[in-house]
Amino acid sequence: MTSWRDLLPGTPARTFDALALGIELRQREAYDPARWEARAVVPVTPRLLARRQDDLQLVARPLVRGARDAWIRADATWDAVRRSAGRFEPVQVRWFAELHALTQALRTTGPFAPSGDTVALDAVDSPLLWPHLAAAEALGIPLVSLNAQQRVRLARSATARVALDAIGGGGLRVSADLEIDGQPTDAAHARALGDAGLFAFATEVDPVPIVLAPVALPDPLPSLLGAPPVEVPPAEAAEFVAEMYPRLARRAPLSVGAGVPAPPPARPTLEVGVTYADDDMDYVLTWVYPGGLRIVYDADDTGGHGGADRDTRAEAQIRERVETAWSAASDLPVAAGATLRDADAAVFATRVLPALDVLDEVRVRTSGTAPSFRELRGDPRLRITAVESVDRDWFDLGIVVTIDGRTIPFGTLFSALSRGRTRIKLSDGAWFSLAHPALQRLRELLDEAASLDEWETGPRLPRTHLALWAEFEDLADESDAAVEWRGLARALREVGEVPEVAPPPGFLADLRPYQREGLSWLALLHAHRLGGILADDMGLGKTLQLLALIAHARSRGDARPWLVVAPTSVLPTWRDEAARFVPALRVRVVEATAVRRTTSIAEVAAGADVVVAPYGVVRTDAAEFAVPHWAGVVLDEAQFVKNPATRIHRAIATLRTDAVFAATGTPLENGLDDLWALLSLAAPGLFPSIRQFREEYTRAIEQVPSDAPTALSAAAASAHREKMLDRLRRRVRPFLLRRTKDVVASDLPPKQEQQLVVALGPAHQELYDRVLQRERQKVLGLLDDLDRQRFIVFRSLTLLRMLALAPGLVDERDAHLGSAKLDALLERLVEVAAEGHRALVFSQFTSFLDLAADRLDAAGLAYAHLDGSTARRGEVIEGFRGGEAPVFLISLKAGGFGLTLTEAEYVFVLDPWWNPAAENQAIDRAHRIGQTRSVFVYRLIAAGTVEEKVRELQHRKAALFDAVIDDGEAFASALDADDIRQLLGP
After folding, report:
1. Phi, then psi, of 397 in degrees rounded to 5
2. What's the pLDDT at 928?
3. Where is 285: in which H helix or E strand?
């Protein structure tokens, strides 16, 4: 209710009675067996405290200032303060009310009840007590003593540790080690206040000093305060070290004296116990702690069982590694235990167990006799014969599958494929996975053929379904479609000069000369119902050339719609570019899957000239997209389909279209398999299966041929490689157009690149070298079987790369070592911003970008942040382009394509990758058509780390790209065991 004094401004401020918190240390009188009445509780005096220190109690109550300026009890009870009705300052009243509530809730059972209007502080078990007491000073509430023979203060900080010291004869002593405000404190004169603080006092001092201190007191510290040290006899010391010592190390901080062994590792080990019985096997996963604690593994366990004796954080780290390795090795579910039979037992024994056995903090124990499981790991060899059946539109198929020289019974194979099994075990213990791309294609072929017609004498397939088995060379050679396609390919190669095609009517862009050449090349391919790869450098206008092709095709009377498949982030670019340069085109963007759409793809295509859809939607609704007959299909950022085993690659392969055009500045990122995957869509039939492609080209070019003599001279090997390389170039050239930025050098500003070598701090370098030695010993032993151990090897390399950036990325306990690379980055970003420039900062690790963001926050430097978790990507990008911040932190995965950020002149690449293509794409966000200023590129390399070796490997990868795509020198292989040895070498 408003007071009349507050009706007008300028009324003098009201004054309130002052309040203080009175604190007193009390003691129950000594026990006298001759007296029956209750023992009295009296305030502690120096004389009483000198005689005994048991039965102590710390109490508190409100005090008011008396007439002589002393703090007195008067009528300041807890209830009177709460009901003061304006007598005391409201914030102080609220503080006392909250303190009283704390003393009444979450109380422990104190030694005895407080008397009068006091509350027992030593019965409060809430950690909120300490910040509440600390807030009193700012509110003008002093902490004072209720007794003239005592004085009270609140400490700023304190530490408490369990002290272990050696005593004579080999025994041990366990006690509490205390410091309050940096001063050693006798634990015998301290008592716990719950598990979040304590109070300490001194004897033989008048008045008695009492100190209240906040400090964590995990067990057994509360029981060690005010008690004599616990001694471990020499005969029991070994048992103590083996059983109790590890538990103490997990529960509380330790202070270890001379002669006492270092604390044992507190982290658990995951034991994989395996028992074999005939062809079956049982396994059980168990957490094993030093000291003998054993807990059954549970993926959903939150650490309730076992309590404080468990290190749930360490368990979570180990569990993540185990589940990742397990899932990479097989599709068996991760469980605490199971009984496995047949092929499941075989895959667990030959894949899962070896993957787990090499992990840190995992131990495999087996009992019983293991069956002779053997994995057939070779590529399946499929011999397919196709002859015309009585029905002229069908082929009768003969299928023979061999793996590692073993002929697989077709009935067994067909039964497993039709039932959706993932592996097969033969009678002699040999087994193999059905996940191989060739077998998956065979599964699709058989399933579809069986659904189309009843099989009477064996498998048969309609002629119109050649795409499902076009990867098999025998079939493609004998099919009418393959013969027709090869005739067209020969006609294309025989064209001496690409006829020039003028930009179509209504096309509003002014094409540069190299873009006109691109249009002419694309138009020639499309006229022959062939596709190709437009592999121009990033930023040279691939989208514009393909829009010109679409407009050209429609100007020639082809009214069928086109399909453009692109990453989600690039969809607006196609819509906006079409509206700007070819406004007559009806463009429809499909962003939702069939579940959320009301219109089918066929209906959308019927009312559009161009349908633009993301890769994810095409993958999910592949059956719908396969219905229209598209005039052409454009794959923007076509590296999304470089893996032929993925659903999106298969979805594109099933589209009905005259031609597929792949647009990507990086058609070859990791190896020649990338190129094969794109050409299998854009130019199906150009090459045989991926298996034969590897045998004929990959192995011959990237390595010495396997059938070559051991003593093959270097000159002969080089000559053979050049021969196969030349053959590959001749076959690829008609279907791939590549222009680098060199062709438009006059249209682009200069680009200056510099490598900044950053030295690690001494402690950081020491930690890195120690981890390097450990990972090197582990990894080098796995390289003889790299295909099976690839996940583990790359995990170690990723660990080293993260450790080179910042130790805190690997282990939060090492975060105090900092990051020299972030220091160097921040220094340059401050300078860039001060000069009015703008910068892009790229990293593959979002966690490292988060650390960079923290440093920028601390420096007061504004920034934008884009990674895979960014919800409003468009707003973030437009905000940076509009000048909201001078720095843009971008993850390579989220921002490596589909962005034009010519507002920035500086690019910082924080961590190198095996292949320079990812870095080049990042740099091209700023250095592209539309940039008018010089672009400065800085690559930060951590000295003395794996990053230096990665940079060397980048040069080899660049040579690989140049050799095939840019007709450069001969190249080295993709990342293999020799590469890894060099990365981990001295």
Report:
1. -110, 140
2. 59
3. strand 280-288
For residue 625, give the amino acid letter: F
Helix (H) or strand (E) holding 488: helix 480-493
Kindly state whether residues 370 and 421 are assigned to the same domain.
Answer: no
User: Residue 137: is its pLDDT beyond 50?
Assistant: yes
Helix, strand, coil shares of the chain, percent, nearest 5, are: 40, 20, 35
With H, G, I as helix, E, B as strand and everything else as coil, classify residue 984.
helix
In the numeric block, the tokens 């990342």 are attached to: 975
Lowest mean pLDDT among 543-557, 770-784, 954-968: 954-968
Q: Which residues, at least 6 apart from 151, have a Cβ–Cβ distance to it below 8 Å?
A: 145, 207, 208, 209, 210
What is the residue type of 631?
A: A
How confident is the prediction for the chain on average, in pLDDT? 78
Cis peptide before 214 (omega within 30 of 0): no
Q: How far apart are CA 686 and CA 492, in angstroms?
A: 13
Q: 136: number of CA atoms within 13 Å, CB side?
A: 22
Same domain, 897 and 954: yes
Give residue for tokens 């295909």. Answer: 787
Q: What percent of the chain has pLDDT over 90?
A: 22
Identify each DSSP E strand in 783-851 by its residue range: 839-843
| Three-class secondary structure of residue 310 per DSSP | coil
Distance CA 217, CA 199 (A): 12
What's the chain's length in residues? 986
Q: Is residue 395 part of a domain?
A: yes
Give yes or no: residues 679 and 653 share one domain: yes
DSSP string for 103-149: HHSSB---SS---TT-EEGGGB--TTHHHHHHTTGGGT--EEESSTT
What is the rounded CA–CA span in Å between residue 793 and residue 790?
Answer: 5
Cα–Cα distance measured from residue 342 to residue 332, given in angstroms and rounded to the nearest whole number: 13
**552 contacts: CB under 8 Å, gap ≥ 6:** 501, 503, 504, 519, 523
Residues 132 and 111 in one domain: yes
Give domain status of residue 362, yes or no.
yes
Strands 254-256 and 158-167: parallel
pLDDT at residue number 627: 94
pTM of the prediction?
0.42
Q: Which residue has the tokens 């390595």?
A: 703
What lies within 8 Å, CB to CB, of 360 at 6+ separation is 321
Of 175, 327, 166, nearest to 234 (Cα)?
166
Distance between first and last Cα of the chain: 80
Three-state DSSP class for residue 290:
coil
- Single out the residue of 426, 386, 396, 421 nearest to residue 408, CA to CA: 426
Q: Please give the DSSP secondary-structure letter assigned to residue 170.
A: G
Residues 370 and 408 in one domain: no
95 — pLDDT class (breaks 50, 70, 90): very high
Angle separating helix axes 977-984 and 946-964, nearest 10 degrees: 150
Whether residue 529 lies inside any domain: the answer is yes
The pLDDT-based confidence of 438 (bands split at 50, 70, 90) is low
- Here the tokens at position 755 are 């490598």
**Are the beta carbons of 700 and 694 closer than 8 angstroms?**
no
DSSP codes of every residue in 643-654: -TTSHHHHHHHT
Cα–Cα–Cα angle for 441, 442, 448, rounded to 5 degrees: 90
Residues 419 and 300 in one domain: no
Query: CB of 947 within 8 A of CB of 804?
Result: yes
Maximum Cα–Cα distance across the chain? 124
- Residue 19 CA to residue 576 CA, distance in Å, equals 70
Give the integer Cα–Cα distance in Å for 471 and 679.
11
Question: Number of structural domains, the chain?
Answer: 6
Nearest Cα neighbor of 400 from 484, 299, 503, 472 is 472
Environment class of 324 (CB within 10 Å of its CB; exposed 0-12, middle 13-18, buried 19+): middle
Same domain, 593 and 688: yes
Q: Where are the alpha helices (DSSP H) in 290-430?
A: 312-329, 342-347, 353-357, 410-418
Q: In terms of residue numbers, what domain contains 827?
A: 749-984
pLDDT for the residue 299:
60
